[in-house]
Design brief:
Elements (H helix, E strand, L loop, with lengths): L9 E2 L2 E2 L36 H6 L12 H9 L10 H14 L14 H13 L2 H14 L16 E2 L2 E2 L2 H7 L4 H12 L21 H18 L1 E2 L13 E3 L5 H11 L11 H11 L3 E3 L8 H12 L3 H42 L5 E14 L15 E10 L4 E8 L14 H14 L6 E6 L9 H12 L5 E6 L8 H14 L6 H11 L3 E4 L5 E2 L1 H6 L13 E5 L5 E5 L8 E4 L7 H6 L5 E2 L6 H10 L14
Helix pairs in contact: 3-4, 5-7, 8-10, 11-12, 15-16
C-alpha cells in the first residue's frame, strides 16, 4: 500500500530535519538556511511544533474578514498550508525537482516522472494562488472522474488517482494537490455522497467563540512589524529552501516573553484593550509575521549591516537618517543580487550535468564553490574531559571544494605537520589554496570548458593576485577555455559548501576521534556527497612562479567578478557587482612575456611540508597523549 507520509525538502539525500543540526560556526543555510530551514529562528520550541506544511509554505497575511476563525486556519494548514499572497514559482519548481529525484515511495516506479514538470508547476501554482473553495472544487472534480464502481461485497468504492491525465499513486496525488490524508478522505466522502461542490464551513459567515479578534491580530502584527523596523536587521534574500520571504532578525538578546511584555506595556492604561496572553501573542506572530525572527546566538551577521543599522538607530538628523537608510538599502540590494546570481549559476550547472548524464557527454558548464572550514582538533570525544578545553590539541585543517552540478564535495584534510609552514603555519595562504584547487581540477574527469568558481571575499585566501593569475595561467596553457571567478558580498557568503561542512561537523560531534584516519572515516560517513581527501597532493610555490609572468591587479578588493577567456590571452575583465554596467579590462601579462614562455615554464617547484617542531611535539606528548588510548599511535609521531 502506498505510504501517505508527508515529504519534506531534502539536502544531500537526507530529510530536512536530519540536516537542521548543522555546525553553528559554519552555516545558517537551510533556514538558511532552510535551511532552508534551520528551524524557527525565534528560538521558541513551540514554534517548531507548528504544522510542517505551514512552516514550509509560509503563513498567510492577517485575515481582515470577520468570518476568519481558528478552525479555518487549522483546516488550511491540513490542506497543505498553501500561503496566501504571491506564489513562489521558483520554490514550486524546486519542490517538483525534489519529487522527481526522491520518488513517490512506490516500489519500482516513480509516478512523478510520468507528469510533465512544466504542466505540474502551472497546476500547483494555480492551486497555491486560488481560493480554498476553488481548490477543493477542482480536486473533487478529479476525484469524481476517478470514482470506480464498488467491487462485489465491498463496503467502499475505490478511486483512480490522476494528475493531468496521468495515473498516479495516492501519495503523488496528495503532494501535487497540497493535501493531507485527512482532507483527501473528507473530499472522497463528499464525492461518494454525490456532492459536486464542497459544503460551506460550519462557521462560515461568523467567527468562532474562541477566535482571536481581528483587531487583536492587526494590533499584534503591527506592533511586531514596527518593532522590527526599529530594531531588526533585514536580510537581502530568503534562506535556501524557504519561500521567497527575506527574514528580519531581531537581536539575540530578545525573547518572545520580553517582546510580549513590551507589547502589554505599550497598551498602557487603555481599559478597552483586549488582554492578549503570551500564547495568543506567539500564535499571531507565527501566523502573521513569520518573516520576523529572533536571531540565534551564533548566527553570522554582516558587519556592515550591523554598523549601518546602528547608525540608523542613533541618527540625530533627518538628513543623516535618510543617507544611512539609502546606503543600507543599496547594500542589501547588491547582496541580494549576488545571492540570486549565485543560485542561478548553480541551477545552470545542475541542468548542464543532468543533460550531460542523459547524453553521456561532458557537461557544458561546471560550477565549483570552495572555502575553508573551522579547523578540527584531535583527540575529540563525545564525552570530552574538562582539561582538554584549555589545551592546544593537534589541529587538522579542512578545505572543501563543492561541485554543485555533480552533488559532490571533496574535503581536503591535512594536519599541522603537513602544512607549508612549520607547526601549521601558512595553512590558508594562496599557495595552499591554489595547490588544492589545481589538484581537484586535474583529477576532475568531467570538467567543462566553461568553468565558474565562487568563493568568499577573504583577501588572504582567495581574492588575491595568485588565484587570479592561476586562472589566467589555466586559459593560457589550454587547461580551461572560459573561466569566471566570483566573490560574494562580505557578510553574505553562506553557500553550498558550508552546508556539507555542517553535515560533516554533525557527524564529527557524535564520534570519538583520535587519529586522522578516524576523522577521514567520519567525513566519508557524514553524507553521501561528502568525500575525504587525505594528504597526497603536492604543495607548489605558485606565487613566486606567477610573479615572473603576471603583474598585480591594483584595487583588487573592490571587484567581485573576474572573467578570463582563452581567445583573449592574458586579458581579465572585472566588475564590482554582478549588475555593474562598467567592466574594467586589464592585461595581466607583463611586457615582453609571451604565451609560449608561460607554457614552456611548466609547473612551479614543489614545497615540502614544514613539519612539526620539537617544541610542539614535546608539548603534545606531555599534555595531549595521555588523553588518548594507549593502543593508538598519535598522529604526530
Amino acid at each position: 500500500m502506498t505510504s501517505t507520509r508527508r515529504r519534506s525538502i531534502s539536502f544531500c539525500g537526507l530529510p530536512l530535519e536530519d540536516a537542521q543540526q548543522l555546525a553553528e560556526d559554519d552555516l545558517d543555510f537551510f533556514g538558511s538556511d532552510a535551511s532552508a530551514s534551520s528551524g524557527d529562528e525565534s528560538g521558541s520550541d513551540e514554534a517548531r511544533q507548528e504544522p510542517a506544511a505551514k512552516r514550509l509554505y509560509g503563513a498567510g497575511e492577517v485575515d481582515s474578514q470577520d468570518e476568519s476563525s481558528e478552525e479555518e486556519d487549522e483546516e488550511e494548514s491540513d490542506d497543505g498550508g498553501a500561503a496566501e499572497g504571491d506564489a513562489d514559482r521558483g520554490y514550486i519548481a524546486a519542490k517538483i525537482r525534489d519529487f522527481r529525484s526522491i520518488g513517490c515511495g512506490c516500489s519500482g516506479k516513480n509516478h512523478y516522472l510520468d507528469i510533465p514538470p512544466n504542466s505540474l508547476e502551472e497546476m500547483m501554482l494555480s492551486l497555491q494562488t486560488g481560493t480554498k473553495k476553488d481548490k477543493k472544487t477542482f480536486i473533487m472534480g478529479e476525484l469524481s472522474a476517478g470514482l470506480r464502481k464498488p467491487a462485489p461485497g465491498a463496503r467502499r468504492r475505490s478511486f483512480l488517482y490522476r494528475v493531468l491525465g496521468q495515473e498516479v499513486c495516492r501519495e503523488a496525488f496528495q503532494e501535487a494537490h497540497y493535501l493531507s490524508h485527512h482532507t483527501l478522505r473528507t473530499l472522497q466522502e463528499f464525492v461518494e455522497a454525490g456532492r459536486t461542490f464542497p459544503p460551506p464551513h460550519k462557521l462560515s459567515g461568523r467567527a468562532a467563540k474562541h477566535a482571536v479578534p481581528v483587531e487583536v491580530k492587526r494590533d499584534v502584527t503591527a506592533f511586531i512589524k514596527n518593532y522590527a523596523v526599529s530594531h531588526g536587521m533585514p536580510q537581502p534574500a530568503a534562506p535556501r529552501g524557504a519561500r521567497n520571504m527575506p527574514p528580519t532578525y531581531l537581536p539575540a538578546t530578545l525573547t518572545v516573553t520580553e517582546l510580549h511584555k513590551l507589547y502589554c506595556d505599550s497598551r498602557g492604561d487603555d481599559t478597552d484593550a483586549v488582554s492578549v496572553s503570551y500564547y495568543t501573542f506567539r500564535r499571531v506572530w507565527l501566523a502573521s509575521a513569520a518573516d520576523v525572527k529572533i536571531m540565534k546566538r551564533r548566527t553570522d551577521v554582516c558587519d556592515r549591516c550591523d554598523k549601518l543599522r546602528e547608525k540608523m538607530r542613533t541618527a540625530k538628523t533627518e538628513e543623516g537618517l535618510s543617507a544611512t537608510t539609502k546606503g543600507f538599502e543599496e547594500h542589501l540590494q547588491i547582496a541580494g543580487e549576488e545571492r540570486t546570481y549565485y543560485n542561478d549559476i548553480i541551477s545552470l550547472a545542475k541542468d548542464a550535468a543532468a543533460e550531460a548524464a542523459e547524453e553521456n557527454t561532458k557537461p557544458a558548464k561546471t560550477h565549483l564553490t570552495f572555502d575553508f572550514a573551522q579547523q578540527i582538533e584531535l583527540p575529540f570525544h563525545t564525552r570530552q574531559v574538562g582539561p582538554l578545553y584549555f589545551k592546544s590539541r593537534f589541529k587538522v585543517q579542512l578545505f572543501g571544494i563543492c561541485n554543485e552540478g555533480a552533488h559532490h564535495q571533496r574535503n581536503y584534510l591535512f594536519h599541522e605537520g603537513q602544512c607549508i609552514g612549520e607547526d601549521g603555519k601558512k595553512a590558508h595562504g594562496p599557495n595552499a589554496v591554489v595547490s588544492m584547487v589545481d589538484h581537484y581540477l586535474s583529477e576532475l574527469r568531467d570538467l567543462a570548458d566553461d568553468l565558474h568558481l565562487h568563493a568568499d571575499n577573504c583577501v588572504g585566501q582567495n581574492k588575491n593576485r595568485t588565484v587570479i593569475a592561476y586562472l589566467v595561467w589555466r586559459t593560457l596553457t589550454g587547461k580551461s577555455s572560459d573561466v569566471e571567478l566570483s566573490f560574494m558580498s562580505v557578510g553574505h557568503t553562506r553557500c553550498t559548501v558550508d552546508g556539507y561542512f555542517g553535515l560533516l561537523k554533525k557527524k564529527v560531534r557524535n564520534s570519538d576521534l583520535d587519529t586522522v584516519e578516524q576523522l577521514i572515516t567520519a567525513v566519508d560517513a557524514s553524507c553521501q556527497p561528502n568525500e575525504a581527501q587525505d594528504f597526497s597532493w603536492l604543495w607548489r610555490e605558485w606565487d613566486a612562479f606567477f610573479d615572473k609572468f603576471f603583474r598585480p591587479i591594483r584595487g583588487i578588493t573592490k571587484y567581485h567578478h573576474f572573467r578570463i577567456q582563452n581567445n583573449r590571452p592574458g586579458l581579465v575583465n572585472m566588475k564590482a557587482s554582478v549588475n555593474d554596467s562598467t567592466e574594467i579590462e586589464i592585461q595581466l601579462l607583463k611586457e615582453n612575456v609571451t604565451v609560449a614562455q608561460v607554457i614552456e615554464a611548466g609547473l612551479p617547484r614543489h614545497l615540502q611540508p614544514g613539519g612539526i617542531s620539537d617544541q610542539r611535539r614535546a608539548y603534545l606528548a606531555k599534555e595531549i597523549r595521555h588523553h588518548m588510548p594507549e593502543d593508538i599511535t598519535p598522529p604526530w609521531e
